[in-house]
Amino acid sequence: MFRIFENKSKEELLCEKYSRLMQRAYKLALIDKKKSDQINQRAKKIMAELKRMNCDLIETKSETA
User: Residue 3: which residues within 8 A CB-CB, separation 6 or more?
Assistant: First the structure.
């Protein structure tokens, strides 16, 4: 029912980190493009790691199209 005391898997933690970085990069894009690009690169590295792990939590573009 509630997952209060359950530990999150590495995939779940990486997905959350990816989401936070992408949101931060989006907000910074209006103010500082260079900083936004740096954060976006970090997020892309996390996405590559998730794809390498064959994570079921990520949606590929072919599935959503």
Answer: none
